[in-house]
Amino acid sequence: MAIIKFTNGLLCDEGHLRAGDLYVDTYTGKIIVPQSQETVDKTIDLMGLILAPGFIDIQINGCFGFNYTDYQSDWSYEQGYDECMKKLLTTGTTSVCPTIVTSTPKNYSKILPKLKHRRETSRTESLGSHCEGPIISTKKKGCHNVNNLKRPRSKKEFYDVYGGKQNLKNIKIITAAPELDGKLDIIPEIVANDVVYAVGHTEAKFETALKAVDQGATMLTHTFNAMPQPHHRDPGPIGLLGLSDSSKAPFYGLISDGIHVDPTYIKLAYDVNKDKLCLVTDATFAMGLPDGDYVWENAVQSKRGAVLKLKGTDTIAGSVATLAYCMRNAMKWCNIPLAEAVKCVTNNPARSVGFENTKGFLKVDHDADLVILDHNGFVQKVYKLGNEVAGSNNHFTPLKSHL
């Protein structure tokens, strides 16, 4: 056991910066109450830098050459998963909801048990998977495989989609389209199993989206993408952001990579309800890889800087941004201080998936998942359960250590 004291810096939490010290017990991996200097085993001088909670990404499809939905064998999946999660940790993202896009019951049965929540000391940990589909709108399916979309007619069929009800314990978020027949009725039971119901890949009108909220839906998936755009007589699901009862308004994911959503919309959404904004990457396997051409799912994809396209076309093939990059974009586009942007990648996502008592805050008894940032929001160091790991402050190149 070792007691670590972080000092001579600024603590960033709940939208504010303040001077102060933070104490960590590396045996429990928890933030602890202040200790006397005699009990401190190691003092870390922050030298004026900023200490913040580790970042939480509730929608990420893969990174560093690995796709969470791709299953070939137990061995290859576990090897690829381990490698990508160790590298992802260095970017400052300490917890994620690994996102499985529309797949088959057989695939869900193989993958979901591997993504159940478990505390991790040396790699980014899963808080439970985000199942994006397959119960989504055909017209708003995006890149999801239309052949795997489902229309379950009963509760049993609904659970069978994900390989059986026993798999709910491995799922943290289900994204579905509430306008599909009978899908509103299943929401209370999903929520009762500690799973977040998110409205997404949907054609729902505002009235239907509001009914979903009344039934227990508490999230919008990648807001503005794969859903109706606001109309002056029917704002659609996006209208939920502006509910007069802000406590009823859902949390909402927003991809701030500069590709998926115009910066003006990022600012507009932030100004409407900043306390429910969860910045997400929606990153693909290509995040963290060098620029180049990659064969993926029988297509050639070209990565150039922040952009991933199908080679020879202008078709966007996904995101390659880190959460730190998305956070810095939000600072710039919303004209907000770093502390407010940090809230959107720590406090808000922790609350959105029910982990606010253990993750995402600089509070006593919370996991000591920490990042040291410079004043521009670049990651300098990362700590997982109090243990130091390498940090990377460059989202476009392969892994680099900046100690």
From TrEMBL:
What name does this protein carry?
A: N-acetylglucosamine-6-phosphate deacetylase
Q: Which organism is it from?
A: Ambrosiozyma monospora (Yeast)
Record lineage: Eukaryota, Fungi, Dikarya, Ascomycota, Saccharomycotina
Q: Which residues bind Zn(2+)?
A: E132, H201, H222
Which InterPro entries does the record associate with it? Amidohydro-rel, GlcNAc_6-P_deAcase, Metal-dep_hydrolase_composite, Metal_Hydrolase
The reply to whether Hydrolase figures as a keyword in the UniProt entry is yes
Statement: the UniProt record of this protein carries the keyword Nucleotide-binding: no
Task: Detail which positions bind substrate.
Answer: C143, N225, A226, R233, H260, I316, A317, G318
Origin superkingdom: Eukaryota
Q: What does this protein need as cofactor?
A: a divalent metal cation
